[in-house]
Amino acid sequence: MMAPYGELPTVRDTFAEASEALGQDLWQMLVDGPAETINQTVNTQPIMLTAGVAVWRAWLAQGGATPDMVAGHSLGEYSALVAAGVLQFADAVQLVRFRAQVMQDAVAVGEGAMAAVLGLEPEEIDAACSEAAQGEVVSAANLNSPGQIVIAGHVAAVERAMAVCTARGAKRAVLLPVSAPFHCALMKPAAERLRERLAGVAIATPKIPVLNNVDVATPADADAIRDALVRQAFSPVRWIETIRRMHADGIEAVYEFGPGKVLAGLVRRIEGSLAIEAVIDAARLQQVAAQL
Q1: Which residues, in sequence order, are bridge partners of residue 114?
Q2: Contact 190, 102 (CB under 8 A)
Q3: Of 13, 62, 117, 137, which has fewest CB within 10 angstroms of its CB?
Q4: Per-residue pLDDT for 2 more than 80?
Q5: 181-214: per-residue pLDDT in tens?
């Protein structure tokens, strides 16, 4: 996944720093796999954090401009907090591995699920989940873009909600290959353990406003940032509102840092008037940094 950036020294140095913090070679894991190891959330989360921070650092090394605001989707919020100087990178790598482990521990394998629902608005999803719950947990987890929402909860409840959504006119409802039902009430035990861990993590005042997932707000107080990260674990990712808030605050262009371009696609569907660019490889990173 990092092959397009692999020749940039900043990228390799960032992975080396993360590997030292964890006592595990993340770059070698990416190169050699196997996929089953990479896809374990205790490995996926540190790798994704490191990927985002590595490309951000490469951007700065190329003389790229400092943004007026940063945000990240779910785990990406931790990368945004590192970029804003709120979290030290080594602390963040260890923190997200802990986050991954407590999230995995919160729900036994096979008891939770997530599903993507296409073609319904948030209010319709909420109504479908309420109808399908029947005493179990199922709710909106990722409000990704108009017509693309992920739900999470107990397996049976998620499957019932998928059927209700289809009956209500959803274009498609499909189970996702995830290891835990993130961003729903089943993650509350994990969130409490995360709260305890965050109490001992240094939180600095943001150098760049960080628009968070849970409140679509930019808190600067350390305790407020900690609390938002705790609640983020069991609350929906409000990405639609995040991008609309950026636009309302005067943001005109959005750049996605890291491998892939999923968020760029979501941004286009949320607010088409924004200029959006996914910085997908070293060559494009250098070109865009020079332009800005």
Answers
A1: 152
A2: yes
A3: 13
A4: yes
A5: 999 999 999 999 999 999 999 999 999 999 999 9
216-231 pLDDT per residue, tens: 999 999 999 999 999 9
User: Which amino acid is located at 119 in the chain?
Assistant: G
Residue 227's closest CA among 194, 265, 270, 180?
Answer: 194
Please indicate whether residue 247 is annotated as part of the active site: no
Percentage of residues of the chain with pLDDT beyond 70: 100
Whole-model pTM: value is: 0.95
Q: CA nearest 4: which of 283, 290, 286?
A: 283
Task: Determine the angle formed by the axes of helices 282-291 and 41-61, rounding to 10 degrees.
Answer: 40
Query: 73, 139, 183, 235: which is the annotated catalytic residue?
Result: 183
Q: Which of 183, 186, 224, 180 is nearest to 81 (CA)?
A: 224
- Secondary structure (DSSP) of 24-92: S-HHHHHHH--HHHHTSHHHHHHHHHHHHHHHHHHHHHTTPPPPS-B--STTHHHHHHHHTTSS-HHHH
Q: pLDDT band for position 33 (50/70/90)?
A: confident
Place of tokens 């209010």: 123
CB 229 within 8 A of CB 183: no
Catalytic, 74? Answer: yes
Sign of CA dihedral 168, 139, 224, 103: negative
What is the C-alpha to C-alpha distance for residues 279 and 286, in angstroms, rounded to an integer? 9
Give the pLDDT band of residue 260 (cuts 50, 70, 90): confident
Catalytic option among 19, 74, 139, 145: 74
Centroid of chain to Cα 111: 22
How far apart CA 148 and CA 206 sit, in angstroms, is 31
The helices-and-strands tally (H runs, E runs) of the chain is 13, 6
E strands, 67-178, are: 112-118, 138-145, 148-154, 172-175
